Amino acid sequence: MMKALWLLLLLACLLTAGEGTILRRCQLAQDLQQLGLDGYAGYSLANWVCMAFHESSYNTAATHYNDYDGSTDFGIFQINSRYWCQYGNEQSSNICGIQCSELLTDNIATDVACAKIVVTDSEDGMGAWVAWRAYCQGQNLSQYVEGCNV
To answer: In whole angstroms, how far apart are CA 148 and each of 26, 69, 138?
Structure first.
């Protein structure tokens, strides 16, 4: 009985900690502009907002497990644990030099700093993100920043 109670308590804490925030489009656009992503590595702010929408639906606590290689994607930009951040004891290059859990907070400054590394270190730039290639690349993205005063 006591074990079950502890498990329920642990589960409740994990569920509460994993909720995150779903940012509004214009708030995200303004935050990303303030954090220096507008024009970073030659990509407009609209590209970053589009990518975040299709990767995480603007959810700061989004995670996605990848069956094909056992890695996990984290945060608003779905940054991958195999290359960019450290997830537990999982094998990782950890190029951003951070714990993956740092990408799950409502403060997206760490996500942006790592995304800047991803886009400049990847041969494909923003093509490193599958969702950007599928939904944003070469598209008219004006709707992602329209009315946001950015």
So the answer is: 5, 38, 21
Structure tokens at 95: 């190029």
Q: At what angle do helices 45-56 and 25-34 cross, to 10 degrees?
A: 130
pLDDT for the residue 20? 78
Spatial separation of the C-alpha atoms in residues 148 and 19, rounded to whole Å: 26
CATH number for 21-144: choose from 2.40.110.10, 3.40.640.10, 1.10.10.1590, 1.10.530.10.
Answer: 1.10.530.10
pLDDT of residue 17: 44
Give the SS3 label for residue 22. strand
Active site residues: 55, 73
DSSP one-letter string for 48-67: HHHHHHHHHTTBTT-EEE-T
Instruction: Write the pLDDT tens digit of every residue in 84-139.
Output: 999 999 999 999 999 999 999 999 999 999 999 999 999 999 999 999 999 999 99
